[in-house]
Amino acid sequence: MLKNFTLFVASVIALTFVFTAASAPAHAADDMKKWQVQVIKAVAKNQRYPRSAIAREIEGKAKVRLVVAADGSITSHEVVEGTGEAVLDREIPKLVEKLNPLPALPGGQDELSFLLPLTWTLN
To answer: N or C, which end of the chain is more exposed by having fewer CB within 10 Å?
Structure first.
């Protein structure tokens, strides 16, 4: 019998965004939080748990660095830390492709690089 499964998608706090925010206005921070929530929703909608991983009860965590242009297009990605499980690691580029493009960046930013943690967990 297969266990029920849930994808635990990183919360807003778990996303590690790397950008310069020296004395950013309050509305810019609000816009960034809204953008982060949109990214989280997109990941939750598009992240897939392979059936073979469910059947074999494989779980894993990965970290992916994404570089996003002003229009939201993902210009590059790098798997910083794989899950160590080929069946899950093969899902990462598929997810990036489904996510592209993300919503346009807030506040007139030209580019944003951030670390996206991904988790596949069975309940």
So the answer is: N
Whose tokens are 């598009």? That residue is 46
Strand partners, 40: none
Distance of CA 47 to the CA centre of its chain: 9
For 4-110, strand residue ranges (E) read 5-6, 16-18, 60-69, 74-81
* Structure confidence at residue 108 as a pLDDT band (50, 70, 90): confident
Is the separation of the CB atoms in 103 and 1 below 8 Å?
Answer: no
Q: For residues 49 and 56, is the Cβ–Cβ distance under 8 A?
A: no
CA 74 to CA 97: how far, in whole Å? Answer: 9
For the CA atoms of 49, 55, 60, 64, the dihedral, rounded to the nearest 10 degrees, stands at -30
- How far is residue 94's CA from residue 92's CA, in Å, rounded to a whole number? 5
Neighbour count for residue 45 (Cβ, 10 Å): 10
Among 3-12, 46-55, 75-84, which is the least confidently predicted range?
3-12
For residue 1 the two structure tokens come to: 């019998």
pTM: 0.81
